[in-house]
Amino acid sequence: MPRQPTMADIARQAGVSRVTVSYALNGRPGVSEQMRARILGIARDIGFNANTSARALHGAAVRPVGMTLRRPASDAHTVEVFRRELISGIQTELAARDLGLALQYVGDAAEETAVYRRWHAERRVGGVLVCDLESDDPRIGPLAELGLPAVVVGGPVPGDVLTGIWNDDAAAVDTVVRHLAGLGHRGITRVGGPAGMLHTAVRDAAFEAACRQAGVEATVVGSDYTARTGGLATRRLLSSPHRPTAIAYDNDVMAVAGLAVAREMGLRVPADLSLVAFDDSPLCQAVRPALTVLSRDIVAYGAHAVRLLFDVIEGRPPAAVLDHTAVLLVRDSTAPPPPPRS
């Protein structure tokens, strides 16, 4: 299927910015009549469809914003707090614009890319929000080629071919290590996310670097963010003859599961074992002891991503946008380690 002409194509031929093209196509002030006529002429010549995403989202036809989740639909009830609150922030921002969210579950990157191609060909969405950026992400090239407005949530995009928004995960992880090392822990384990994810690699590297600097023994264990793998990882770690005195989990679901396993094994938190979770949730606050967490405003993060998507739709060039950094909320699940076992 041939690629649909985009505002970027018009901008290149006219020698102007995509913002100028957007203003000209939508009849907005700020563009001379001569330039407007030139831009409209180029649009006709290259076969640009006047009912593009940008124009549609300004009233010609209301289209939702698209987003995919890479997990079975049957697992929706197990989604961790990050994804739930991210979607909440996205929907809140879209509702204020009288727009909806088209959410589809996919199995892998190939299926996800096929969804984007179909949405674009059928003009089903005005733009997309892309999550779970991989270290060498196979979706970025096809998305950039399609010209479908997109914002990547979770990392700067290599080459700045698409707009990306992210949090400073490295600084957040460093804060956790310094807190635990300051309490006297000399062996800390991180139960991280799926291998291949960019944020997993960033957090793993930051954790190991922070532990080296603090003179702490570091162990990293991978997971898939579910309570099941979080519990299994915790059981293996606590069954080891060299068990850690502190564990930092990459989400709330795994941390709560880890707390349950520690109790089953007769360990006291935090007297025998300190626990920290990435991302706060009602679960982290309801359990006893309440969990020390890295907290960030995920709802605001999702809303910010939507605003950036509208910037892209308006013709703004790709940008790398650093959002806020998570802060450590110290509760009752962290304390100095127990005396060394004889």
Textual characterization of the structure:
With 342 residues, this protein is of the alpha/beta class. It has 3 domains: 7-50, 434 Repressor (Amino-terminal Domain) (Orthogonal Bundle); 64-167 and 298-325, Response regulator (Rossmann fold, 3-Layer(aba) Sandwich); 169-295, 3-Layer(aba) Sandwich (Rossmann fold). The protein is 45% helix and 15% strand. It is built from 13 helices and 12 strands. Strand 1 (65-69), helix 5 (81-95) and strand 2 (101-105) form a beta-alpha-beta unit. The longest helix has 17 residues, at 198-214.
What brief labels describe this structure?
Rossmann fold; 342 residues; 45% helix; 434 Repressor (Amino-terminal Domain); alpha/beta; 13 helices; single chain; six-stranded mixed beta sheet
Q: What CATH architecture of the largest domain would you give?
A: 3-Layer(aba) Sandwich
Strands in their spatial order, largest beta sheet: 2-1-3-4-5-11
Residue share in helices? 40-55%
Number of helices: 13
List the uncertain runs: 51-61
Name of the CATH class of the largest domain:
Alpha Beta
CATH T-level fold name of the largest domain: Rossmann fold
Query: Superfamily at the CATH H level of the largest domain?
Result: Response regulator
| Strand-pairing-aware structural class | alpha/beta
Order of helices and strands: HHHHEHEHEHEEHEHEHEHEHEHEE
Shape: elongated
**Count of DSSP strands:** 12
Percent of residues in β-strands:
15-25%
**Over all CA atoms, what is the radius of gyration?**
23 Å
Please give the largest β-sheet.
6 strands, parallel
Query: Separation of termini?
Result: 70 Å
